[in-house]
Design goal:
It is built from 13 helices and twelve strands. With 394 residues, it is of the alpha+beta class. The strands form four sheets. Strands 1-6-7-8 form a four-stranded antiparallel beta sheet, with no helix packed on it. Strands 3-2-12 form a three-stranded antiparallel beta sheet. α4 packs across α6 and α8 (193-211) packs antiparallel against α10.
Length: 394
């Protein structure tokens, strides 16, 4: 109960009457560094990208699986309930810039988000008009310039010693929830950092063990010697072991004995360590951080779902579609206001970007079940069935 008392007990002094009354109709206090200061990203993006993406096959596969799935969902433009077939906004999203097409743009955008917990996009165009291009900004080059009202006052990019600032409206900053930062998201790789390190070090240890003949660890001892090791001999031997025979990269290296020393095996073999089970456990933890069923990652004995199709459906419903909807909503709030001037009438319904999930293969079985259930409902009229299935009236 001590922890509960510290968290929820009455150890703190009650707020004064003045503080209670003055906190009404006021915004919360945000973590401040100083007016107009850029807040540095509180992590090493390069290490996350290197250790977690470039060197870890599980994280690499999970990130690409989610990013490719999100990017494969077509975006449709709606005006109210009606679908807009042709529009400059759709053309922009289809080819955001000369270097990337729409699907690759979203794939890279989601990749940055999953690695860093933050993703940045820049819109380029005339001051009082719709943007002509969209560009991605690498997260480790971007900093948030805090505003006095708790909202970003702008963004600063630094590349190769050069800096430039951007208005807050010109940058789309997609970030995950971070309980320790008001300005930056929490990367899934940070949550999975221990599992990633364990998986990577385990792979290095296994490789080093194989390359050094698979010899297990042991202990050196002296038996029946005329005199014990001198301090200099002991220090030399200790330094030799620490520098040449310890660590994942030195696992299993043969040790040259002298001075009456003997070797006694003490370590455990990979079989004794339940090596495969430990590797699979860390792989499942990494996949869990990204919301990917371990069954889809090829992890043995990860039978969380009855079959692969159920795991695939869970990936889409629990991870891919929610993230894709968040991105569609963020793009709507960021881009649509720039295109509202193209409306033919002030009475036109507002534009919005939505997901077209009709052709997603992973959801085909569920769509078929829903179609059969609604079409077989005798208490619904044909018009009501068409509306429930999203076909609209005849």
């Amino acid at each position: 109960m001590a922890l509960w008392t510290r968290l929820f007990g009455g150890a703190d002094k009650p707020a004064s009457e003045e503080s209670v009354s003055t906190k009404q109709n006021k915004r919360p206090i945000w973590a401040r560094v100083g007016p107009g200061n850029a807040v540095s990203t509180p992590r090493r993006y390069d290490r996350l990208a290197d250790e977690g993406y470039r060197q870890n096959v599980v994280a690499y596969r999970a990130i690409n699986l989610v990013a490719r799935a999100v990017a494969s969902i077509p975006l449709v433009l709606r005006r109210g309930e009606d679908i807009v077939a042709e529009h400059p906004l759709l053309s922009l999203l289809a080819k955001p810039n000369p270097r990337l097409k729409g699907e690759n743009f979203l794939y890279n955008f989601v990749g940055y988000y999953l690695i860093a917990g933050n993703a940045y996009a820049l819109k380029v165009g005339p001051e009082n008009g719709a943007p002509k291009e969209l560009w991605l900004m690498r997260p480790d080059t971007m900093q948030v310039i805090e505003g006095s009202d708790g909202l970003p006052a702008g963004f600063e990019q630094q590349v190769a010693g050069r800096k430039q600032r951007f208005d807050a409206d010109s940058i789309l900053h997609l970030k995950s929830f971070n309980p320790l930062s008001d300005w930056y998201g929490l990367a899934p790789l940070e949550a999975a950092a221990m599992a990633v390190d364990a998986h990577n070090d385990g792979s290095r240890w296994n490789l080093a063990l194989i390359q050094n003949g698979g010899a297990p660890s042991g202990v050196l001892y002296q038996e029946g010697a005329d005199a014990p090791l001198t301090d200099a001999q002991f220090d030399k031997l200790k330094n030799q072991i620490e520098t040449q025979y310890t660590g994942a990269l030195h696992a299993g290296r043969p040790l040259l004995l002298e001075g009456g020393l003997k070797w006694q095996e003490m370590g455990m073999s990979p079989r004794d360590m339940d090596w495969a089970s430990a590797k699979n456990m860390t792989a499942r933890e990494i996949a869990t951080a990204f919301g990917v069923p371990a069954q889809m990652m090829g992890v043995p004995d990860a039978q969380t779902y009855a079959n692969y199709s159920e795991a695939r459906q869970s990936l889409w419903e629990d991870t891919v579609i929610p993230l894709a909807r968040d991105i569609a909503q963020e793009l709507t709030g960021w881009l649509v206001p720039d295109f509202e001037g193209l409306q033919t009438s002030a009475r036109d319904a507002p534009l919005s970007l939505a997901l077209d999930l009709d052709d997603v293969p992973a959801l085909a079985a569920k769509r078929a079940q829903r179609f059969e259930r609604i079409s077989g409902a005798s208490f619904l009229s044909d018009e009501e069935k068409r509306t429930a299935l999203g076909f609209g009236k005849k």
